Amino acid sequence: MKRRGPISRNGRYGEFAAEQTQGSSGESEQPMKSSVLLLTPLLLYAEAPDRVSQLVETMREQTFAGDLAAVGRTVPILIGELAKPHPNAGLAWNQIGVYQAMQGNYAEAERVYQHGIRLLEQSGKTGDVALLQLNLGELYLDVGRPGQAEALLRRALTLATTTIGADAPELANYIYVLGVSRMQQGAWEDARHYFERALTLAGETRDGKIRRGIILGNLAVLYGRDKQWRQAKDSMFQAVPLLEQNLASGHPDLIPLYINLAAIHEHFKEWDLACSSLEKARAVAVTRLRPDHPYMPAILNAQAEIWKKLGNRSEAKELSRRARAIAAAQPRDPSGESSVHISDLKK
After folding, report:
1. CB burial class (10 A; 0-12, 13-18, 19+) of residue 303?
2. What one-character DSSP code corresponds to residue 39?
3. What is the C-alpha separation between 222 and 228, in angstroms, rounded?
4. 34 with 16: CB under 8 angstroms?
5. The whole model's pTM is what?
6. How many CB atoms lie within 10 A of CB 329?
7. pLDDT at residue 333, rounded to an integer
8. 21-344, superfamily in CATH?
9. Which mean pLDDT values do the consecutive 10-residue runs of the chain (347 residues) have?
10. What is the pLDDT of residue 127?
11. Could you write out the DSSP letters of every residue in 129-175?
12. Side-chain-side CA neighbours of residue 329 (13 Å)
């Protein structure tokens, strides 16, 4: 059974390969998976408001509110405005990339991020490149390319440290996503080190509380992997209220959190709570994203596993069938579709 976990995107959300673990009852259990949940805190500054800046700020607010349908309606308007040169076009393309990545349109998101990076480098605005590298690195985690992600994320962290300072709360975003890249490669202690370091920088603002919730959710994944289920539950129970209280109700970035929360409830045989968490994840995916979003196979497979353990094999079989059908219909890895790759970016 495949699971996705919090971390994400802006935090959104890659999967972790691991062997099955044995629960206290001796039953085979699947470990939690993790993904990136990073909320891109994009603000497009301009001395005087202009159409592009206004559209990007509107999209940023809509994304934070989890209203991706409204963002989708704004995207073609912004693209039309970007037909004319604009000094902040690179950051505008970043916001479009965030939308495409959250929708699961990974190939398009990769092209958009790379286009934004080129524009920023051509205009000499290297200080803003780190943000797009961060989001592109997260995308590579989403599609299962952690080595490629790590190389880019290390460059982004170095650039961000130079630009915003080693003690800036925003640096926590770069550090914990780098930790996810290490976790996806099985370097568990490295990941823990990065998560704990990011926690010290997260801050106490609303954004800081979101960062802390995401990091605690990922620490719960590490605890679960090490069979430290009590610590996993404690960490997740700290993460859930931080994210539910500081993200908009039904925000898509809550989906991986609910999936991993269900995994913890499942371990403790809290079946009703596990089912409730997965139903929350499914409802958000259907209403805020789409019924065939890449999150859906993880949700359906997790539900199937619970029904199987409860003895309802026919329902489990149907859920697994639906999960396979949705997974099979997903686009292939964008590495084969993008005309520009990470090797083409300036060192």
Report:
1. buried
2. B
3. 9
4. yes
5. 0.79
6. 9
7. 60
8. Tetratricopeptide repeat domain (1.25.40.10)
9. 35 32 44 44 47 92 90 94 92 95 94 96 89 96 95 96 93 95 95 96 93 95 94 97 94 94 96 97 94 94 96 95 93 49 31
10. 82
11. HHHHHHHHHHHHHHTT-HHHHHHHHHHHHHHHHHHH-TT-TTHHHHH
12. 13
What residue segments make up the domains of the chain, in order of their start? 21-344
Coil, strand or helix at 140: helix
Q: Which three-class secondary structure state does DSSP give residue 338?
A: coil
- Cα distances from 267 to residues 230, 258, 301, 327, in angstroms, run 10, 14, 16, 25
- Residue at 302: amino acid letter: A
Q: Are 245 and 235 in contact (CB under 8 A)?
A: no
Which pLDDT score, from 0 to 100, does residue 50 have?
A: 86
Nearest of 313, 13, 283, 237 to residue 138 by alpha carbon:
13
Q: Which residues contact 145 (CB under 8 A, 6 or more apart)?
A: 333, 335
36: closest CA among 188, 209, 180, 160? 180
Question: What token pair was written down for 185?
Answer: 């490669």
The structure tokens 């700020």 sit at 57
